[in-house]
Design a protein that fits this description.
Order of helices and strands: HEHHEHEHEHHEHHEHEHEH
Bound molecules: 2-phosphoglycolic acid
Structural class: alpha/beta
Distance between the termini: 31 Å
Number of strands: 8
Strand content: 15-25%
Oligomer: single chain
Helix content: 40-55%
Largest sheet: 8 strands, parallel, barrel
Number of helices: 12
Length: about 260
């Protein structure tokens, strides 16, 4: 990743990834963005904010054209674990780079639930993204059973282990890596993890990245799961947090704007 782009992304205090999932068609995505264009630009011009929109795959190209000349970044919602070949229906990280993506979500619980994404496959996707100079946004999180049994860190450890193994043999240090802690029981449910729980997970994650990976890697830590304007105050008070992965609330511009603007 070009060093000026990397510095720009790393120096931002707060990253807001709007994960539109498959909620909008191409036309709906483009009209949502153009309807709120001026206000999106205002949000992105504030020095501390990094705004990234993750539309569905077919919208990446037309949205990229609308984002040209703005400070708003483009993100994909998933990618293939190979760069090229006979893989019907897959999207190559190389194409994501060409279309203008700076970020790509991998390991989202909605993808994991389909049973296609193993922890090993997610680690390979991460490696392909790093070699393509796209920032991986690796989603990790426990389900409600794990949470109720106090097994959160065990679950995260098993999700991260192949990624840490892969990073030991990787030398693409110039692209930052984002870990998005998203408890599965909090996604789209209206339930938010408590600040104490998030803080303890983030402290553990920070310690794991220091002990398990080269200090040359640059990390950011996000939280995702039912973030709304009404609960973002307590979440923003968590000092170790670098930003949010926002699903439902990113589909309502006023709600999204309130979350970004909350101080
Ligand atoms: P939510 O989704 O904000 O609607 O809970 C978050 C996510 O799935 O990334």
């Amino acid at each position: 990743m070009h060093s000026s782009k990397r510095e720009y992304i790393m120096e931002k205090n707060y990253t807001y990834l709007a994960n539109w999932k498959m909620n909008f068609t191409i036309e709906e995505s483009l009209s949502f963005f153009s309807d709120h264009y001026d206000n999106f630009i205002l949000l992105s011009k504030k020095a501390e904010n990094l705004i990234t929109i993750c539309p569905s795959a077919e919208t990446l190209h037309p949205l990229a054209q609308m984002l040209q000349g703005t400070n708003i970044e483009l993100g994909a919602q998933d990618c293939s674990d190979v760069l090229k070949g006979p893989f019907t229906g897959q999207v190559s990280p190389l194409s994501l780079k060409q279309v203008g993506c700076s970020f790509c979500i991998i390991g989202h619980s909605e993808q994991r639930a389909l049973g296609v994404d193993t922890n090993e496959r997610i680690a390979t996707k991460c490696s392909m993204l790093l070699s393509s100079e796209i920032i991986p946004v690796i989603c990790i999180g426990e389900n409600s059973d794990d949470y109720n049994q106090g097994l959160t860190l065990e679950k995260l450890k098993s999700q991260l282990s192949p990624i840490f193994d892969m990073l030991k043999n990787n030398t693409h240090f110039s692209t930052p890596i984002v870990l998005a802690y998203e408890p599965v029981w909090a996604i789209g449910t209206g339930k938010v993890a408590t600040p104490d729980h998030i803080e303890s997970v983030l402290a553990w994650l920070a310690q794991q990245t220091v002990t398990q990976t080269s200090s040359s890697y640059k990390w950011k830590f996000l939280y995702g799961g039912s973030i709304k304007a009404s609960n973002c105050a307590t979440l923003k008070a968590i000092p170790q947090l670098d930003g949010f992965l926002i699903g439902g609330a990113s589909l309502d511009f006023e709600e999204f704007e309130k979350i970004v603007n909350y101080r």
